[in-house]
């Protein structure tokens, strides 16, 4: 609504004279600064000295009787971009501003061979709450990840307006592929591609979050970015009933590895079928039976070497020298893929987070939310979890 009692400035000049004129101002509590000659006026909104400007508001520059040559916006927060309108008579910002920040807009217009410069300084409001990204996975400098790798983004609070926040998230691979975001909680969203990433490329993530109205009086605090380096396409395929898995890199076979999978006596001890992603590795890892105490039936505690994890339900590829006689012929483990020490070290050494391991042959399908089981969903089901569908 029009603000009351606020004055803008009009600088009008002709024949060497300079006159200050009072003007009524503007919309939504913002004002305008106008400068020009007898036939020229340049207007900037918000007006000079305006406070409490909404971070998701628009900066607008208009020129009458002249053509805008340049418009810059300077501030300590997000770099504000904009576009000129037809004939360069107008300029409008194309992104949001950082909350609680001072900005200065400088506009230059040319008329009759003369360049006129107009500035307006204002501050954006400090909201009752802000929203920040606290983690992007993967984002380890120098790490190469597999072609199945999703992008996990976690916020420092629950997001009320998920659609507004999701629109601020951008993923740009060197080799384009369709993808979509899916909200897996009030404070977490995950990006997955329709097909695997092309190998050997860079993927850039950028969140233009500063100033985004996230709902409930909360605005995005600042932008965030991360760079992913996609490595070789390493795909492991295994048949639990046949007790072997084959590892390929960029379509070429590297090795066939015999294993011993879960014994299947209980659901807990059944290795899951489906498309998994390699999540992490460690050497050594102490494995204990979940929900059991020492002395309980089925209790175990084992220290294993060269452990590569592929689910949250305790499934690993790891060294198991005690089951060499069963590897390639029988399933005797508690659910992991037991392999020889030599094969375990080899697999451990080449493993990348986000590499694909596809297993068949059991009646227990890995859940889509069990570790990084995102590829268990069809792409249509996946993108149904976007706030923009």
From TrEMBL:
Note the coiled coil stretches, chain numbering. Answer: none
The protein's superkingdom reads Bacteria
Q: Name one GO cellular component term.
A: extracellular region
GO MF: acyltransferase activity; peptidoglycan L,D-transpeptidase activity
Q: Record's InterPro entries?
A: Big_10, LD-transpeptidase, LD_TPept_cat_dom, Transpep_catalytic_dom
Q: Any keyword Ribosomal protein?
A: no
**Could you identify this protein by its name?**
L,D-TPase catalytic domain-containing protein
């Amino acid at each position: 609504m029009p603000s009351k009692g606020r004055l803008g400035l009009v600088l009008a000049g002709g024949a060497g004279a300079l006159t200050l004129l009072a003007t009524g101002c503007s919309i939504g509590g913002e004002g305008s600064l106008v400068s020009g000659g007898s036939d020229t006026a340049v207007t900037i909104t918000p007006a000079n000295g305006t406070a409490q400007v909404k971070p998701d508001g628009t900066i607008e520059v208009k020129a009458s009787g002249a053509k805008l040559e340049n418009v810059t916006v300077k501030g300590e927060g997000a770099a504000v971009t904009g576009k000129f309108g037809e004939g360069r008579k107008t300029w409008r910002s194309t992104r949001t501003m950082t909350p609680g920040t001072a900005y200065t807009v400088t506009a230059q217009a040319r008329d009759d061979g003369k360049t006129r410069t107009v500035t307006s300084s204002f501050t954006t409001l400090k909201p009752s709450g802000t929203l920040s990204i606290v983690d992007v996975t993967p984002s380890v400098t120098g790490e190469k990840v597999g072609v199945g790798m999703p992008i996990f983004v976690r916020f420092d609070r629950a997001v009320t307006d998920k659609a507004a926040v999701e629109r601020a998230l951008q993923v740009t691979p060197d080799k384009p592929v369709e993808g979509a975001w899916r909200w897996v909680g009030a404070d977490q969203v995950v990006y997955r591609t329709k097909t695997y990433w092309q190998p050997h490329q860079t993927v850039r993530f950028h969140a233009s979050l500063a100033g985004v109205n996230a709902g409930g009086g909360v605005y995005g605090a600042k932008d965030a970015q991360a760079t992913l380096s996609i490595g070789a396409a390493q795909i492991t395929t295994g048949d639990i009933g046949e007790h072997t898995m084959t590892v390929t890199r960029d379509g070429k076979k590297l090795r066939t590895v015999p294993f011993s999978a879960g014994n299947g006596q209980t659901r807990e001890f059944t290795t899951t079928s489906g498309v998994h992603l390699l999540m992490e590795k460690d050497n050594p890892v102490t494995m204990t039976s979940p929900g059991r105490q020492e002395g309980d039936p089925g209790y175990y505690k084992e220290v294993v070497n060269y452990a590569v994890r592929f689910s949250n339900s305790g499934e690993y590829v790891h060294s198991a020298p005690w089951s060499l006689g069963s590897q390639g012929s029988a399933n005797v483990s508690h659910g992991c893929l037991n392999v020889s020490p030599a094969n375990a070290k080899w697999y451990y050494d080449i493993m990348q987070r986000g590499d694909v391991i596809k297993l068949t042959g059991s009646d227990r399908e890995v859940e889509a939310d069990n570790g990084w089981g995102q590829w268990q969903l069809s792409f249509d089901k996946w993108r149904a979890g976007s706030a923009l569908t």
